[in-house]
Amino acid sequence: MTTTDPWIRRYFPSPDAPVQLVCLPHAGGSASFFRPVAQALSPQVEVLAVQYPGRQDRHREPMIDTIGGLADQVCRAVTGAVDRPYALFGHSMGALLAFEVAVRLEQDGRVAERVFVSGRRAPSCHRDEQVHRRDDAGIVAELRGLSGTDQQVFGDDELMRLVLPAVRNDYRAAETYVCATDHRLRSPVTALSGDDDPKASQEEVRAWSTHTRGAFEMERYPGGHFFLVDHAPDVIRLIRERLTRPAAAPR
């Protein structure tokens, strides 16, 4: 792994790859979630996994509890790291970030080859969720229900004390997010979802189509919120196919 910026992890540097994929983790997640993706896509696609402050090697840094604030910092890091055509992939909270980062980069004249949004309803679809206001037991119940956390973690009190502040922070960011722009991306958008995801109905996922002037497609998989773990080979295959034969973004 190499890194020159605390925000970016290159687990499998691929300097000859024709395209880079910036990956944005879910609430409470970290860059290492995308290490297997980076390995699978290398050397055709170089993955740049984003590491949010307040976790793993950045655990001493203050967290950012708004999507806008995170997007501003991620945009700065991506601008410094991306040196060829690029795409964005975000899961859950990361999908909102992918959208907001794509908006900022487009406004700076840098249009993504494609934006992949996974496990998240469109920015225009608001729900009044208040998980971040629950006590620790309530947040743990939420995580158990989504089945995206190793069950052994719940039995490790010390580890849970380290993890829960980041989870609460990120839920606050996602749950207080309000889409403040009517900007429609020029990039094509691929929306991925699980057919049993309590966080994103089929109609809410399809609403991503209203946020782009480019091509839109929706792919659904069996499973819940973390369908992409169970169907990793299929998801990675789709990413590879779309980025090695990308649809042109409108100019």
Descriptive notes:
This protein is of the alpha/beta class and 251 residues long. It has a single domain, classed as Rossmann fold, CATH 3.40.50. The chain is 37% helix and 14% strand. It has nine helices and seven strands, in the order ββαβαβαβαααβαβαα. The protein has helices at residues 35-41, 67-81, 93-107, 136-146, 151-154, 157-175, 202-206, 227-230, 232-244, and strands at residues 8-9, 19-24, 45-50, 86-91, 115-118, 189-194, 216-221. The longest helix has 19 residues, at 157-175. The model has no long low-confidence stretch (mean pLDDT 91).
What is the CATH-assigned architecture? Answer: 3-Layer(aba) Sandwich
- Count of helical stretches: 9
CATH superfamily: Alpha/Beta hydrolase fold, catalytic domain
Please identify the structural class as seen in this structure.
alpha/beta
| The CATH topology | Rossmann fold
Return the string of H and E elements: EEHEHEHEHHHEHEHH
What is the CATH level 1 assignment? Answer: Alpha Beta
Largest sheet: 7 strands, mixed
Poorly predicted regions: none
Bulk shape: globular
Number of domains: 1
Radius of gyration: 17 Å
What is the arithmetic mean of pLDDT? Answer: 91
Number of strands: 7
How helix-rich are the residues, as a percent range?
25-40%
The oligomeric state is single chain
Proportion of strand residues? 5-15%
Straight-line distance between termini: 35 Å
Side by side, the strands of the main sheet go 1-3-2-4-5-6-7
GO molecular function, one term: hydrolase activity
Keywords: Hydrolase
Pfam family, one: Thioesterase
Family: Belongs to the thioesterase family.
